[in-house]
Amino acid sequence: MGDYVKVSEIFGENVFNDTAMQERLPKKVYKKLKDIIAEGGDLDLETADVIAHEMKEWAIEKGATHYTHWFQPMTGVTAEKHDSFITAPLPSGKVLMSFSGKELIKGEPDASSFPSGGLRATFEARGYTAWDCTSPAFVRQDAAGATLCIPTAFCSYTGEALDQKTPLLRSMEAIDAQAVRLLRLFGNTTSRKVTPSVGAEQEYFLVDQAKFLQRKDLIYAGRTLFGAMPPKGQEMDDHYFGTIRQKIASFMRDVNIELWKLGVTAKTQHNEVAPAQHELAPIYAEANVAVDHNQIVMQTLKRIATQHGMKCLLHEKPFAGVNGSGKHDNWSLITDDGINLLDPGKTPHENIQFLLILSCIIKAVDEHAGLLRESAADPGNDHRLGANEAPPAIVSVFLGEQLEDVVEQLVSTGTATSSKTGEVLETGVRTLPELDRDATDRNRTSPFAFTGNKFEFRMVGSRDSIAAPNIVLDTIVAEAFSDACDVLEKAENFEEAVHDLIKENFSGHQRIIFNGNGYSDAWVQEAKRRGLPNIRSMVEAIPELLSEKSVRVFEKFGVFTRSELESRVEIKYENYAKTVNIEAKTMIDMATKQIIPAVIHYSTRLADSIVKIRQAGIEEVTVQKKILEQTSSLLTKTQNALEELRKIEQKACALPEGKGRAEFYHDQVVPAMEALREPVDELEMLVDKEMWPMPSYGDLLFEV
Ligand code: ADP
Ligand code: MG
Predict the structure, then answer these.
(1) Ligand 1 centre from 695 Cα, in Å?
(2) What does the alpha-carbon distance between residue 131 and residue 18 come to, in Å, rounded to a whole number?
(3) Is any ligand 1 atom within 6 A of the Cβ of residue 282?
(4) Does the beta carbon of 330 lie inside 6 Å of ligand 1?
(5) Which of 398, 427, 552, 617 is 20 to 30 A removed from 545 (C-alpha atoms)?
């Protein structure tokens, strides 16, 4: 049993949050910073110096020796370069600890080795990191000691975004402007700002560290590339919400403590569907803070797992045949005075503002379904989306019974006169309290579901940053709001115009609404009939970024320029090709050096056994002979598939970088990898367990 934790005391203790700033900063400086956080604007160097000094003093008290600009380049993970606070030695031989405003505001990491997709030639290696004062600095304590981490944006010399944060902040400004514009039309004169709120539920697997280290595929690719199914998978559904075992509970406790100290509101934790799979969800926060926090969550899960003798797998599909991991991106719009614009109230049919906003979101998602799909594309997610795994690769919107009924009324008769209400839930047990039933049941199969007062985008991969989906959501909804405002600001009769617009939006985009089972084959057919895109892979999704309407919407709201989009497309193709390349090479390595030798060893033993038994005078050695025949035939298949993969892999490597190469990896290398996996998985079921060169699925999933 660990010590008793006082959450309210430790929460945020390692964050330079509002309390810390208020305590430490002179009133005038504090006010200036708060204004900039709320309204934007430039920080003068004098003020920055004061903030930097106080931040440093605070960090040093927490044990910090270094600071780092913590940024999110296009690698999907965060990057940092540490500088210590020490100055050049004084004549006395001592050093001072210093941190200037300039160092706080701007950094210049040698950026040449971060992906830039051609935006910055290597001879112009300069990249800048700029402090994002809307996400608080924090002190991270780990094996490196304690480090002051300053969330920063990362751009090129000419101001082009080289990261995830810059476009996210731009998209937040876009939706803020358009949402406020829309609110004004409804007579709201008091809200000054609208911010997207985001809560990301994070799924992950835990496996034993020693076993992890015996598998090169887990080490290099983060997922298993071979592996036969154990006798028991997830068919009993006994893991989901099951009792959390002590070892895992102790891990979760440490994760929570770490996260709370860093101001991350870790809230829920439970076992997920697959064995060894779990989930963590924080309370929602402003989008850019939520994106940063999700990165902190992923890093913390990994670090604490190692301390507990385990490894945390964030890959979208660590085990074939077992549920993969995703991230649910919960999204809503909230004003600075606390109004959730996605709250329908009790009688949504009368809530005209809500209905307009809802109809705009439906329109945005329908018009940019491909772009939204792309925002969830990463190499690992290819094994989930559209690959017989939840959720499907078709974007559709779930509204639930109540809202669908309202939309139906609006579309068919032009007016909505009623809202279905939730009733009292009868449990049939007198001692249980009466429960109000929600007006809407849940639908777990929808990729984009309305869940009470927010939308939940469920396509996102577990390892991916949630920045991209939120950039897309903010931008496309900003466009729909802007279109609506263009019409309504000119309208002579506002009431009538709103009414017509709501009807038009819903009627024009009703095809995206689907409340049924998103995992069924029937839906795939139905979606095709409706003309909804079904984009089954990352390489197929990437071009969505450069479609005319995508470029138009991003440029209109200043979120991405065309050349920034082009650079991202290039980075993504490369990222895909590199990822599959690593996987293919890992398979080749494992098959050549571990699996084939083990199988040869096993067949030799069988052959020896046959010879010895015959020498002992028994002619009929049928069992061993049969197994030997099967093994040998599978071994031949394996060797052939291995040679084939080698050849194709060499061809792929020789191709020039870009789309063609990524497509080649997808169309040729991936199938060759699958062809190699097949006989190997069959062999695993045949060969003596003692001789199999790596832990099995059963070992990994059930013996954590
Ligand atoms: P689930 O049943 O899908 O687990 P929860 O109600 O537990 O749903 O919420 C999941 C996530 O949604 C949490 O991170 C929560 O903070 C977040 N969330 C709740 N309300 C909002 C909102 N208005 N905007 C954004 N995220 C929200
Ligand atoms: Mg959820």
Answers:
(1) 37
(2) 16
(3) yes
(4) yes
(5) 398
